[in-house]
Write a sequence for this structure.
RNA sequence: GCGGGUGUAGCUCAGUGGUAGAGCGUCUCGUUGCCAACGAGAAGGCCGAGGGUUCAAGUCCCUUCACCCGCUCCA
């Protein structure tokens, strides 16, 4: 078997050709950072989402016991894309995503405005030049002092210079007199510009600035905000998880790499709440299960890795974070993030408790001293949270990249080895020839398979053109099995079952097709 | 945001300032009957968009949009 390296161009061409992914608004020239799913892509992604929903919420971790020795319990939730603006202040997104940036037109450098400082000669603020440097950066400071000395034609000593913050500048009067940290000329810095990574809109028909709202940059915050309601209304007990899938929006500076970094994308997030003492165990439990899960739906192999973050990579509140990463053709030999499993401590609930003044702690009646009557005194605490947060679009893309195979020794060199569980086409039924009673049998079998498996994907049926061409078409669409009604079927009620990955054929009884397929699809 | 590259049929791509092309795919008819078969035919394009130069622009110039690659940035 001869194989050639996977080309992203070839994968993208197949995605378009077979209706997996289209460019959004393509007939208008497309729009940067947005992609639509065609019929097969939409079903592929739905199967991925359903698999996540099934294995993370309805039957978490395939029914296995958690580190506490009990069945893992999770409940679903569906929260709004638009939340109260204070949610994003509490989460840190409004502050963190809003660093004003300053560009230098001369050197093409970009600086964070709050990192810039200015030095100028004492008593010359009204007319003299300012020389910018970067906070805590000796090189640009030295350079700025040197340029200032040259400018005023004398050496600068103690007391001869004054330093001020960039934000203290009068942008109209004084900015034109500023020389950038790496620039030679004055006036090449732009005013600070907001790089707003959150999309915003306005509520109400006569909306003004006061009605500004944000499209969520992650689904997680909706869960934290409803944590108390779920606890109060559903009889869940710590430890338990809340799962949520849905669209999120980030105004990426550079959308890139097909659907990998899109401005509108879909997340599948679980927030698993537990006692602080058990949080490390649960963190390891979810980290390991998530890795196993991705393998189970077709990403097995050396293209998938689990990467534990280094200490200096961690957010200030995080005790531990791992990424499940996939080696995409465009990241190879490196990897791109599919999912992050973060130990978020009690950061989010604490933040929302402070900002909202709502009590978000939990009274745990299974803890504390044992009372004379045999019960427990109880313990009040803010739960810690483990967050497995997956990108469904990235997942779908990884599935497509992993499945894409080119084997020039096959009659149909390009095909998708999609795992049957996520494949958008579950099976195809072909009459070998479009006559002699075969179409009728094929139609009956198609109807049966539709009734049994149609909720998970398409059952294709096609009588046109040569059988080889029909197989090839199914190979490209990632359909795992084709059943062909032929002359023998008429005699002994058996059909040809053709396997996509190997191209091999076996005969099975017509009335056993459903059983066979049910086993293979896990349905 | 910067630099480089690419935009022509569903896909892959030719196309020298002078009538819009090929292969594959799609559809129809016929033949064949287990791996992109054969024959005949058909549909499908304002050459990414907008300006300009020219008697004449897919081709030259400008602008813009999208995608790819490399920087930069990145919760």
């Amino acid at each position: 078997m001869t194989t050639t390296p996977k080309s992203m161009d070839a994968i993208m061409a197949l995605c378009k050709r077979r209706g997996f992914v289209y460019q959004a608004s393509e007939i208008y020239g497309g729009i940067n950072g947005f992609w639509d799913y065609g019929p097969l892509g939409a079903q592929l992604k739905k199967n991925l989402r359903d698999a996540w929903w099934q294995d993370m919420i309805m039957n978490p971790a395939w029914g296995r016991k958690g580190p506490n020795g009990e069945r893992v319990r999770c409940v679903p939730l569906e929260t709004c894309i638009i939340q109260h603006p204070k949610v994003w202040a509490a989460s840190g997104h409004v502050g963190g995503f809003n660093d004003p940036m300053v560009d230098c037109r001369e050197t093409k450098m970009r600086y964070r405005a709050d990192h810039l400082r200015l030095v100028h000669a004492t008593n010359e603020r009204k007319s003299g030049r300012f020389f910018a440097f970067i906070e805590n950066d000796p090189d640009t400071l030295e350079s700025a002092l040197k340029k200032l000395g040259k400018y005023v034609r004398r050496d600068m000593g103690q007391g001869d210079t004054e330093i001020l913050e960039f934000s203290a500048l009068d942008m109209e009067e004084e900015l034109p007199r500023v020389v950038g940290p790496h620039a030679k000329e004055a006036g090449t810095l732009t005013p600070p510009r907001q790089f707003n990574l959150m999309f915003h809109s306005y509520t109400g028909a006569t909306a003004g600035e006061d009605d500004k709202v944000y499209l969520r940059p992650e689904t997680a915050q909706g869960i934290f905000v409803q944590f108390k309601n779920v606890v109060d209304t559903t009889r869940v007990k710590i430890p338990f998880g809340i799962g949520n899938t849905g669209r999120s929006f980030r105004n990426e500076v550079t959308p890139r790499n097909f659907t990998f970094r899109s401005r509108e994308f879909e997340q599948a997030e679980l927030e698993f709440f537990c006692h602080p003492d058990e949080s490390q165990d649960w963190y390891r439990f979810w980290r390991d299960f998530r890795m196993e899960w991705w393998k189970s739906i077709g990403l097995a192999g050396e293209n998938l890795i689990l990467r534990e973050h280094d200490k200096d990579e961690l957010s200030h509140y995080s005790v531990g974070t791992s990424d499940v990463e996939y080696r995409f053709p465009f990241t190879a030999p490196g990897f791109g993030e599919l999912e992050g499993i973060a130990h978020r401590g009690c950061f989010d609930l604490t933040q929302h408790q402070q900002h909202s003044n709502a009590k978000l702690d939990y009274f745990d009646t299974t803890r504390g001293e044992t009372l004379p009557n045999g019960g427990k005194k109880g313990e009040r605490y803010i739960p810690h949270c483990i967050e497995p947060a997956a990108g469904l679009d990235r997942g779908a893309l990884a599935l497509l990249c992993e499945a894409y195979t080119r084997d020039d020794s096959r009659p149909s060199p390009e095909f998708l080895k999609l795992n049957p569980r996520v494949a958008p086409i579950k099976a195809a039924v072909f009459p070998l020839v479009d006559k002699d009673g075969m179409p009728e049998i094929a139609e009956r079998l198609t109807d049966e398979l539709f009734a049994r498996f149609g909720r998970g994907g398409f059952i294709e049926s096609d009588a046109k053109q040569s059988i080889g061409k029909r197989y090839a078409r199914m190979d490209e669409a990632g359909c795992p099995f084709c059943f062909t009604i032929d002359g023998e079927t008429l005699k002994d009620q058996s059909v040809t079952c053709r396997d996509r990955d190997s191209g091999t054929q076996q005969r099975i009884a017509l009335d056993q097709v459903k059983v066979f397929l049910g086993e293979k699809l896990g349905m």
Remarks:
- DSSP finds 14 helices and 27 strands in chain A.
- Chain A has a mean pLDDT of 87.
- The two ends of chain A are 32 Å apart (CA to CA).
